[in-house]
Specification:
Blueprint (H helix, E strand, L loop, with lengths): L3 H17 L4 H11 L5 E2 H10 L10 H10 L3 E7 L10 E6 L1
Antiparallel strand pairs: 1-3, 2-3
Helix pairs in contact: 2-3, 2-4
Amino acid sequence: MIDQAGIDGMEACNTKAEETTSFSTEAAQALVLELLQDGAKTGEALVWRCKEAGHVPHDDRAFGTVFAGLSKRGLIRKIGYGPRHRGHGTAGAVVWSLT
């Protein structure tokens, strides 16, 4: 569970992304749901695909609200962890699936 400081930071990052770039949390969430139609994927892979489609925030951490919002609404869920390609020294990539 994310603590309040984490939630506040995630929301601040998202607000900055939406105010300073063409990033839209709502549009990125719609694409994530579409991408998960054909099976589970890591959050890292989903972020890459979103960015390839033009959903590019000032900082990739803005995607935290994309996943948190979908998860909180019960549309996606974590089903495990997979290998990471970025983030040396960090835990494995979260694997997401539609609920």
